[in-house]
Every structure is written in C-alpha cells, then in structure tokens.
Design goal:
Layout: E1 3-7, H1 17-27, E2 34-39, H2 44-49, E3 55-58, H3 67-80, E4 82-87, H4 97-102, E5 107-110, H5 114-119, H6 123-134, E6 138-141, H7 144-150, E7 159-161, H8 177-184, E8 191-195, H9 204-217, E9 222-226, H10 232-239, E10 246-250, H11 257-262, E11 266-269, H12 285-292, E12 297-300, E13 315-318, H13 323-335, H14 337-354, H15 357-372
Parallel strand pairs: 1-2, 1-4, 2-3, 4-5, 5-6, 6-7, 8-9, 8-11, 9-10, 11-12, 12-13
Helix pairs in contact: 9-10, 9-13, 12-14
EC number: 2.4.-.-
GO molecular function: glycosyltransferase activity
Enzyme class: transferase
Length: about 375
C-alpha cells in the first residue's frame, strides 16, 4: 500500500478549525494509508490509540522547520515507505520539502488556510511562500479569495481547491436546541449566536457595539457569544451595560457545539481584516456549520468569509468595522422570521450539496491519486 506522511502542527486533540479540517481529510483515507507526524498535546496518547493509522508525536507542542524536525520526518518517510508528503499547513513547515525529496518522497502537497493568504501581504511572507511553492507539486486553496492571494507567488497550475466539509448529520436543525436553551435560561427569546474564538478579527466587539441598536427594535433579543480566547475580558467589559441581554459562555466541549448552534435563531460573526491584511479570515467553516444547522448567517467581509455565504440567499455580508451595518442586518433577520427561516433552509440545502465531507474527501483523494501515480 502506498502511504502518505502528513506533517502538521494542526491536529487533534488540540481544538481548532484547521485541526478539524486536517483530521477530517485524514479520517476518510483508507486505514493504514496515512502516517501522521504532529506535536504532542495534552491527552494525545489516548487520542492516538483510537486512530486507525500511526501518529508520531514531536516532543513539544510546536514544530518548526528545524533540522531536528526534518530528520524525524525523513526517518518516518524511510520507516513507512511514504511516497507522498502532505503538509497540513504550508507555512512554515512546507520549508522542509527539499529534505523530504532527499529522503525519497516523489510528490509534495501543501494545504493552505487563511494565514498563508495573510502572508502574501508582506514582502518576507511572499518570499517564503514562493520558496514553499517552488518545492510543491500541489498547493491547495480554500476559495476564490485565497486563490487570488496565493497566485501572486505560486504558479496557478499548482493550485487546486480543497475546502473543509460539514457533517450535516451532526450539524442539523434542532440538534440539542431545547437542552441548551433550557440550560442557559433563554426561553423563547430570539437569539443571535456567535460561536468562535474570542480574538479581535472575529468581530464580537462589533456585535456588542451594534447590540443596543438591535434592542431598540427587538427588545427581547438575546446575544449569545460562545468561545474562549484572549479577547474575553474586553468583551465582558463591553457587555456589562447591556442589562443581561448578552451571555458570554466561555469555551464549550466540541461535542456540545452542534447544540449551541442549533440554539440560535441567527448566526453572526462580523469578522474584519486587521494589521494591513495580515490578519484575515480564510473562509470561516463555522458559517457553513451554522447554515447546516438551519440558521441564516451574517458574515463579515474579511478575506474569504463571503465564500461561505450565498448573499441574500443563505445570509448577509456586512462590513465588520461598521456596527450600524451589523445592526441593520440583525434587525432585518430577527423581524422577518419567515424570511430568516427560508435563508436557513436554503443554507442547509447548499451545504449538503456543495460542502459535504464526502465531496471534500473525494477532492483530497483525487489530489493524492494524481500525485501518487508514477
């Protein structure tokens, strides 16, 4: 059996969107066809025992393109007879590609996310990505926005679209809705939900600045912010004057996420691009998970986030720096419940048709087959 070595900093049990993306691709490969080299993380030993393929852990929680990491990866290529290497995130570990070829790898696949698109905003980032791309056979991109950014430094004939999938059986309307709403005391109030890491790019602060305007038109509305991160104290400070109409839950277990999404009536994450284009949204899989849960979405216009929305059909796209735009979008959806419900239904149909894991896995298989054929 031809084996693929996956070298990645982003892998469970560490939580995150990139981790879920990489794991979702690997989980759908034939058992024994993949070997993973990833950093050590709390509870990784138990997690690794449950996988139908070898997972080799680096001694620390971060891997950089150092000689030690290169030697270990090259040793795995030899030990398992790997003909292909996939870098779970092209930057920066893709710099190891020349050493992988020396070890006997015939083809190299680089998977990119939002941060590689951000790197194209800096001269040094462009140079690094050009170097990475020069040693790749295939470089994947999430959507049209990331393709436009990457093609500045990577030949277009190397670029192949590969986006994450959504499990529409896990993320579904009503999946745990009543349980979560009861636990949080939401009752029958209309709920705007934001589920994401709490960092400035995601725009939870813009939601809070927009919220007083929402309450003027929909006085019983509730804003539910789910997630953890360094911006939490700032958000809690902004929420204090809101008279109990905002709940910030902190992080919740991954298994509980479908229930929290289903508990909302509108999903909103008005992300914005920061730091001159370096800090940018690559796609925003959570918009698609919300659509699969039957919610209309309000997305920010940062980077590739609009690629996860059919404007006016599955949701709305706003300027994440403009609280007034966010207010208007939320009020429209909360007051037009029938229209919002129709958007959610169209969103679920679209995700099931265009963003399934079966489709993502099939694309990944074609990428590997095209590079694994002698």
């Amino acid at each position: 059996m031809r084996r693929t070595l996956v070298v990645t900093n982003d892998f469970p049990p560490r939580a995150g969107g990139i981790q879920s993306f990489v794991y979702g691709l690997i989980a759908r490969r034939p058992p024994g066809s993949v070997v993973v080299y990833a950093p050590r993380w709390p509870d990784s030993e138990d997690f690794d025992l449950r996988q139908p393929y070898p997972v080799v852990r680096h001694p620390t929680s971060l891997m950089l393109p150092t000689p030690a990491v290169a030697r270990r990866a090259a040793a795995l290529v030899a030990e398992f007879g790997c003909e292909t290497v996939v870098f779970g995130a092209a930057a920066p570990l893709g710099l190891l590609a020349p050493r992988m070829r020396e070890a006997g790898v015939r083809r190299v696949v680089m998977v990119t996310h939002g941060h590689e698109a951000g790197w194209t905003a800096l001269p040094v980032g462009r140079r690094v990505l050009a170097r990475i791309g020069a040693h790749a056979d295939v470089v994947t991109y999430l959507g049209e926005y990331t393709r436009r950014r990457l093609v500045r430094v990577i030949p277009g004939d190397k670029l192949v679209r590969l986006a994450p999938g959504v499990d529409t059986e896990v993320f579904a309307p009503g999946a745990g809705r009543e349980r979560v709403r009861a636990a949080l005391g939401l009752g029958e109030r209309p709920v705007v939900l934001c589920l994401s890491r709490l960092v400035p790019r995601k725009g939870q602060d813009t939601l809070l600045r927009a919220w007083p305007g929402v309450l003027r038109d929909v006085p019983d509305a509730m804003l539910l912010i789910v997630g953890g991160g360094p911006y939490r104290r700032t958000l809690e400070r902004l929420a204090r004057p809101m008279n109990g109409s905002v709940q910030i839950t902190g992080p919740v277990p991954e298994a509980a996420l479908p229930g929290y999404l289903a508990a909302g009536d509108v999903f909103a994450m008005p992300c914005r691009t920061r730091l001159g284009g370096i800090d940018v949204e690559g796609l925003g899989i959570v918009y698609l998970e919300a659509s699969a849960s039957g919610l209309p979405v309000v997305a920010g216009s940062s980077g590739g986030a609009p690629d996860a929305v059919l404007r006016g059909q599955t949701g709305l796209v706003v300027d994440g720096t403009r609280p007034d735009e966010v207010t208007a979008a939320l009020v429209d959806l909360l007051k037009d419940r029938a229209g919002a419900r129709a958007m959610g239904e169209r969103g679920r149909e679209w995700v099931a048709r265009e963003w399934s894991w079966d489709l993502a896995a099939s694309r990944f298989a074609r990428v590997l087959e095209s590079v694994e054929t002698p």
